Each structure stands twice: as structure tokens, then as C-alpha cells.
Amino acid sequence: MVIGKGYTDRFMGDDEVRELCTEAFANKNVDGKEVLVVMPDYTRSGPFDLMFRVVYEQLAHRVEHLDILIALGTHPPMSEKQIYDLFGITKEDHAVNFPKVRFFNHSQKADDLRVAGTFSEDEIEEISNGLLRKRVDVSINKMIFEYDLIILVGPTFPHEAMGFSGGHKYLFPGICGEEIIDTFHWIGALITIPCFIGTADTPMRRLVERAAKFIPVERMCLNLVVKGRDLLGMFIGPPDETFKEASALSDKLHIIYKDRPFKKVLSCAPPMYDEMWTAGKCMYKLESVVADGGELIIYAPEVDHLSDVYGEQLSRIGYHCRDYFVKQWERFKDEQGGVLAHSCNVRGIGTFEDGVEHPRITVTFATAMSEEYCKSINVGYRDPASINHEEFKNREDEDILYVEKAGEMLYLLKDNPFRK
Fold first, then answer.
1. In what helix (H) or strand (E) does residue 225 lie, and over which residues does it extend?
2. How many Cβ atoms from other residues are within 10 Å of residue 394's Cβ?
3. Which of 344, 346, 393, 386 lies closest to 366, judged by CA?
């Protein structure tokens, strides 16, 4: 049973949130239980301070332990201050007002993971519609096996590796090992983002839902639909069922349709994207509306590196289209699928024939990374200080699109050539 509300014309109030949570937890058998709450890091938008307080109010006096695990996925660990800022508390608040809760960062170290199950080569081939054939171990943070209930809390948006985020995605990739992450990211890259983003039923979603069946711990989800920090919907219940409700609402709220493509797009990264690993969303959500031969500029003047975790690999392989890797597979077969996926997802659709790469569009970094470095990783360069935002605004009739806060809203063409 799913308990929830969703709106397209107004935001939910705090009282509504508390009422829904009270209803959802009233008959939940949590007394004396070990409860783990899984929530995303600062690279996701949402009223996480409110959700933290409401969940604590509902459960702290009933459960034996109430812990929060930050679903880092492929992102670096958060500092204590970052965690407190995310949940709107201080260290003193924690000690005085929220003493029951403990905070943990997810870890991908081998000693911190446990293999919960394995997909055979045949299963991966079937799930991926024949795109990939390999055996995949499904490893996950071993902490979860110490709890009686896992509560997933996080937003649903159109997503570049899944179609839509939300639900069991906060387990995979949120708190799992690299092998399963690399697998579904690479399947998505093989399909290419414009062909599936904003679609709820994808091979990657099916892989995650089947991977979740390996987890023997009871789960529930508070699936949020947000704009910034404001809630437009919340659905509480089984993760797969709440995902259906949340993705249907997100489809109405987070997709902007355009009549025609644009020759130039200025895609501005919000401060929460502090490395290109996440600022790449500025390309993922807009590639579909860039005209053939057009240019997309990722404006992220504070970003001075590719990735805290995968920067060395990305610097070595650079940014290329899918076919560049696929048609030279012997050269790249030992690289991580997730890193290859990020590379070709940022570079976009293209071809590779007779040793020559032909990207469909130009992708330019207007970041703190140098022109020489951008050239070495196969992307364009522009000095961010040279960009006058006013020159890009209100010029859609001239085939120029300005997106002030990119990365969460998905832009698609009404007549979508990539879905035909």
C-alpha cells in the first residue's frame, strides 16, 4: 500500500508531510527494532532537513537504534560539517536534540561490502536486451544486514543512467559496490542518454529492481518529488510501488518540451555540482535539444577537476562518444564501465569511422580547468570570465537557449528524433 500525495500546482506544507509520515509509521512494527535510513548526499535537491526531523520525531522514541547512511554512490565522503549542513543541524543540536541518531558515509572498500547475490551472463544479456553479456556480483554495504528495517528517503528526477531516479536507486548505486554500478551505467551509455532519459521502464531500472531482490532486509521508501527544496509530492510504501507514483509525477513536473533544437546552449551548473563528475548533468539533461552541429557550453566556473574518485582514469581516456570505445574495445575493455559511461555521456552521441571521431555536437567546458587541459581530454574550452549571461538570455527565437540552473530539469523535443 502506498500512502502519499502529489501536486502539479502547489507545494506540500510541513503539516502535510508530518500527517503522511504519521499515517505511514503508525502501524509499522518498529518498536525496539534496528532501523537504518538511507539518504542522498548534497548533490541532490530536497528538504532533507525537514525529512530528517520528521523521521526522527516519528521513530527515535520507538526504535532501538536509528542510523543514517549517506548514499554516496560514486561520490566522495561527506565531512561532519557537510552532513550537519545537509540536515540543518549543528554538532551541539546533534548531541542535545538528536542523540539517538548516528551518521555514516557509505564506503566502497572491499572490507565494507558483502556480496548479496550474482547475476549470470545469461541474466545480464536478457536484462540488457543483448547489449552486454557478463557475470556480475551484486555487492552492497554490509551494514545493512545488521538492521531490521531500511528506509530509503530521496527525490525522483529524470536520470541519465536509469531513466528516472528514486526508489531502489538509493541502494544501487547509493550504497553498493562498483561492479553493479559500472554494469548499469555502461548499459545506459550503450543505449545513449537521449534514447531513454525520462523513461520509467528501462533495462537499467529492471536490473536494479532485480538486484534489490537479493537484499533480505525489509525496506520502505519515502519517495520525494521536489523543486529545489520544496516538496510537490511524497509517496511512502514499498520502494518499487512508490517509484511508480513518484516517476509519474516527476514526468509532469521535470520535463520541458521544446518545439525545435538550438544551435547554442549555455547550461549553468549549480554550486552543488563541484566536480565534472556531477556537473556532467548539465549535458545529460540538455543533449536532446541541441541541434546537429550545435554547441553546448557547461558553465561551471568553480569546477577545477573532473572527479575526486575517478579523475585519474578520466584524464587518461578523455571524453569520447560511445562508438569510439565500442569500436576499439580491446583497448578499453579493462576500463571501468561507469567511467566510460560518464565519458561518452558528457561527449554525447557521435560516430567513429576509419579512426576518426565525429561527435554530433560540440561540448565546451567553461570551468576553472585550463585550455590546454580541456584540449587534452577532447573537449572545447572557453574562459568562463568571457561569458556574458545577458547575451544568452531571451534569445530562443535565435536558436540560443539559456538554462540558469541545469542538471535536474530535463529538456526534450516535442518531436523527439531519438525515440523513433
1. strand 218-227
2. 9
3. 386
- State the helix-helix crossing angle for 178-191 and 337-347, rounded to 10 degrees: 30
Tell me what pLDDT residue 231 has: 97
Length of the chain equals 420
Helical (H) or strand (E) element with 153? strand 149-155
Query: What is the pTM assigned to this prediction?
Result: 0.95
Q: How confident is the model at residue 419 (pLDDT cuts 50, 70, 90)?
A: confident
Q: What is residue 43's predicted lDDT score, i.e. its pLDDT?
A: 87
* Grid cell for residue 412: 526534450
pLDDT in tens, 102-134: 999 999 999 999 999 999 999 999 999 999 999
Q: Taking Cα atoms as reference points, which of 394, 395, 393, 369 lies closest to residue 382?
A: 369
pLDDT of residue 74: 84
Partnered with residue 163 across adjacent β-strands are 159
Report which secondary-structure segment, H or E, holds 55. Answer: helix 48-59
Instruction: Give the SS3 label for residue 326.
Output: helix
Taking residues 159-179, what's their average pLDDT? Answer: 96
